Amino acid sequence: MIKRRLNIQRFNLTVDLYHIVYIIKLYMSKSKTDKTEYYIKPAEFKASLSAYYETDILTDDLAENIKKIAYGLSYNGSFINYSYKDDMIGDSLIKMYSALKYKKYKFENNSNPFSYFTTIAYHAFINRIKKEKKHHQTITSYKEKIYDEYMCDSENTGGHVYTKPVDSDEY
């Protein structure tokens, strides 16, 4: 009786292990096929870009691809949690369209136009972050200045004395 229970438990354990291995293999095979699809097809993007350079007519396909680059980059882990993500996307669209208008991409370099426009969008995102950081620092320093002036005025404190805290670096 005990031997039979052990055999049943071993059988269940073996079946569970095979089931787990099957699920892992199934998951691994799906993730490899998903990575082969791009949200912009490089050949079509390059063809529509060269057609624009020849005719100066912006097609819907080319405009959609540039929009996809900006929105796709905004889902990058480095940029996803910013509250001004829409401003970053707008700045990158302006920069990419101006590069398109002035035909900055050179086909002679034999490089990938997708990477060129993604780099433009990336730098536009970084510049927006720098602008917002500078703006935040300016607002913060202004608030600190006004607070110190307000607290040092004896009329505002009701006769109490305000002393500014000293940083440990100043000793």
Topology record:
Layout: H1 2-34, H2 42-55, H3 60-74, H4 85-101, H5 113-152, H6 154-157
Helix pairs in contact: 3-4, 3-5, 4-5
Model description:
Helix 3 (60-74) packs antiparallel against helix 4, helix 3 (60-74) packs across helix 5 (113-152) and helix 4 (85-101) packs across helix 5. The chain contains 6 helices and no strands. It has 171 residues and is an all-alpha fold. Helices cover 72% and strands 0% of the residues. It is flat and about 75 Å long. The chain has helices at residues 2-34, 42-55, 60-74, 85-101, 113-152, 154-157.
The largest sheet is: none
Low-confidence stretches: 31-36
Please trace the helix and strand order, writing H or E for each element. HHHHHH
Strand fraction equals under 5%
Shape: flat
Number of strands: 0
User: Between the first and last Cα atoms, what is the distance in angstroms?
Assistant: 81 Å
What count of helical segments does DSSP give?
6
Q: On the 0-100 scale, what is the average pLDDT? A: 83
What is the helix content? Answer: over 70%
Give the structural class: mainly alpha
Rg, please?
30 Å
Write a brief caption for the model:
The protein is mostly helical and 171 residues long.
Give short descriptive properties of this protein.
171 residues, mainly alpha, 6 helices, 72% helix, flat
